[in-house]
Amino acid sequence: MADYTLRIRRYSPETGAAPYWENFDVDLDGHRSVLDGILQAKDRTDGSIGIRCSCRAAICGSCGVRINGRPNLACHTHLDKAAETATDGIITVEPMGNMPVVKDLIVDMDAVHWKKIQRVTPWLIPDGEQPEREYIVPPESMIDVTQTMACIQCGACVSDCLSMEVDPLFIGPAALAKAYRFVGDPRDGQQYERLRNLAEDPHGIYDCTHCFNCIEACPKGVAPMSQIMRLRRIANSDHDIEDRNNGHRHERAFVKNIERNGLLHEADLLPDSYGGKFHPRAVPELARGLPAILKALQRRKVTPGKALLHPHKAPDDVKRIYKHVHEKRERFELNLYVVGKEEDEAEPPQGVAVGHEGTEASASSAGHTPAERSPNR
Ligand code: FES
Fold first, then answer.
1. Domains in the chain: ranges and CATH
2. Smallest Cα–Cα separation from 94: which of 84, 111, 82?
3. What's the pTM?
4. CA of 154 to the centre of ligand 1 (A)
5. Could you tell me if the CB of 106 is within 6 A of ligand 1?
6. pLDDT tens by residue, 31-86
7. By three-state DSSP, how is residue 71 classified?
8. Which atom of ligand 1 has the smallest separation from the CA of 73?
């Protein structure tokens, strides 16, 4: 048996006392989990340690905690692996972030996580006549949404979401990934309504800042940020949804900016996002940004010449990439969840192409026209 030390953050809000750290020595083999360690400490040393768990097999999602500062499932993290990343060999275990602590390692999932899941109407709303028997769904569409269906609602992505730290009302990675589960399902008849709602919400799909934390945090490979980007692409490219948050125009401005300059030319980005330098919508935004602009000029981060003229022109390589993308008649989404195609595996079904590094690139439901998305398919 090896000895490990767990440093657990203790906190009981109702006592009024400040949180504190407490060390517990456990003797367990390295292949046993951090959850086993916590349960041993609870059993042998202090029965009052608060921890939520159920399946102990990375299925129920209830044992989410932060181990050495990173969110993970306590039942799915080996003690020896956790000790490798621990400072001074002491494994720190603390509650997940962005959610209020109920006691020690238990957070209030209802207050944040479940409320946001409810916000995205997490059920199918098929329209049209119900088929006599079951709905038939193209296999590639199911491959596409299977990634989001793998979510076990542990809240690890919510815990590490930087946007949610700044804006607690942000719908968040878990709930938006759940939204894609239904937006991407060809049986759902409310794709446009769902997307418009999520685009118009100031805390919706355009509130994500691409920090990638949720992708790294997810123990099931759901890649919530990728699902948010898919929602944006469908809202943007398939439905042309112009939202009041200016997310749609801002994204297009980015694309145009790089196409024109090769590098991001920030001086153009803001006015372009609002329709051009002299567009009435851009004027109040530019006025609001004036203090930042003056500071940048003062610190010589930008010069009036560079701001007004375009010092860069897109190199040929960039132009070639744009030409290649513009020439594509249909948009394909890479579904990175289905990986590791074996040499002797059968050819992929029609409509599923093999992507880079052996991953399958599926023609996602995002590429379907509304007519193709009939629930009777
Ligand atoms: Fe169920 Fe860890 S106890 S996921």
1. 2-107 (3.10.20.30), 110-244+359-367 (1.10.1060.10), 247-327 (no CATH)
2. 82
3. 0.81
4. 8
5. no
6. 999 999 999 999 999 999 999 999 999 999 999 999 999 999 999 999 999 999 99
7. strand
8. 2
